[in-house]
Amino acid sequence: MPDQFLFAVEVMINGLMAGVLYALVALGFVLIFKASGIFNYAQGVLALFAALTLVGLQNGQIPFAHLINAAFGTKVHYFGWTMPTFLAIALTIVVMVLLAIAIERFILKHLVNQEPIILFMATIGLAYFLEGLGDVMWGADVKTLDVGLPQGASEWIEDRSAVLGGDGFYGFFIDKLDIVAALVAAVLVISLTLFSQYSKQGRALRAVADDHQAALSVGISLRFIWVLVWSIAGIVALVAGIMWGAKSGVQFSLSLIALKALPVLMLGGFTSIPGAIVGGLIIGVGEKLFEFTIGQMIGGATENWFAYVLALVFLVFRPQGLFGEKIIERV
Amino acid sequence: MFYREAGDFKTSYREDSQTFPIKFDRYRYYAVLLVALAVVPFFIDSYWANALLVPFLIYAIAAIGLNILTGYCGQVSLGTGGFMAVGAYACYKLMTAFPDVNILLHIIAAGGITAAVGVLFGLPSLRIKGFYLAVATLAAQFFLIWLFNKVPWFYNYSASGQISAPERTVFGIAVTGPHTEAWAKYLVCLLFVAVLAWVARNLTRGSIGRSWMAIRDMDIAAEIIGVNPLKAKLTAFAVSSFYIGIAGALFFAVYLGAVEVGEAFGIQKSFLILFMIIIGGLGSIFGSFAGAAFLVLLPVLLKNVLVGTLGWPTDLAAHIELMIVGALIIVFLIAEPHGLAQLWRIAKEKLRLWPFPH
What we know:
A: 13 helices, B: 358 residues, mainly alpha, two-stranded antiparallel ribbon
């Protein structure tokens, strides 16, 4: 096989893996959008916040250390212990659930029946708040996240695939972490689907998604469902945060991947879990291939905008996305 | 007692349809203009100009522009930073290509170019709505910033990739470049703000503004009663981008003098201006000013209190500022979705009866 083709295949596979990570963030969006019609801009910051909390707990950082030091002139930074990863993850999940309860109590409860665009802007405010909170709580420096996931190139794939090409080709370079991410995403999607199809709470969730008022009238507590769905979104955010954090360190740019998840959603449709996955994969492959083929000719770094322009062009022809429900408007 | 709509009789149509038909509003407007024109320039120093007044005036123009699109026409845009960058780069290219033409004309022409770009990116709004459109405008934001970063023609092949404004004068007084006096910067910005705000107010209460508001309130219903959505949406995009382009040109040429595009016009700027109109009040010209003033003042105030008085590190103050801004957005959306402008309206209601309420 010609080497050029093999390189393109490698780029494509890496694009697929990046797409999986986009899809992980997009999943959180879809969950919240389905259950409450809220377009949650803060999903990416939730991932950042979750990852920051996890690292902070692991390293035994004292929360708000920077603030305490500034206010009282002390010099405290660490508790002096390191927490086992599983305990830290469990505690982070508790924090995310508490956060979900707080969001419901202080924001969503007061914004029932508002226009979607108002709710959207409220989540932008929430994103800013959480970003500031995360920085004040755990410090703004770039942190490395290590939860014991395998990392580095997979030699096995590299060796096996090297025979495909000629002398100039050394096999596909695929990060082990990406493979783990793909597996985790698959498990997450399957378990979420099972949860929403077969468990009682999952059915209640779908009922709320279908029609708020009808769900209320058969005795489903909207507030509980909202807390539930934001908690799940928080946990999905934690998973996304762990994957991205292990890949590129826990830092502010993590919250920018949330923006990348938006075009993913627009491709897949806001209401479809499979759509989020497929959209993520299309965006991931598309932007890597575009950069590989055309991007280099026009100055590079096209990944910054390709996803948005693709979504924009796509939307003009199919406004509801690939898997979205058809939008019917009435006066 | 102090704010009275009654007893203010008009005897001609001309009087009845003036910009501020109520006496109190009109005198307040004259008073503000008088102070801004005749008092402030004599007392302004470079700290006040650079930290507060000039950014306030420029952001006010951008906020009015975004308010026309989002507040009046209901099309949420997250591409404000990108459009400001178009204004800045258009102004830069014009300034360097035609050095003999007056800078004020360049700034206006930069607004025109931005309007054309805005219409181009506004075209999808005819097909897509709501936050789908908001995300689509993100495409404008990221694409434009990338374009200005990667195509050397836009920054005249300068080694640093920055653009910096050469010195230009109006009536022999420098208004751009490093030797500009504080009052000159202030007056140029004030001139644009005064004219543009007056135009915006009259546009929004005329037939075109009504068609924007009809589209905002319910686009299908508006279409059925005969509002042309193509015309309404695209004019909103054009006028809005014109304002934002002028703000971008002033931001670059008069205020900063030299900009790096990703830093000055990044996505953060889009959100900043969106926050201004949320806090100030969607669909209100006064609200645009109030929101701009609020968000220009807040960081300065916080910095003075936290860093200056309490002696906290600056990065901590910046993070706390993020938290406060985020919390304020939520508080405003919950407690007063119409922003500071609504508080002003309530205050006027109170003033009408005060000190003898029912």
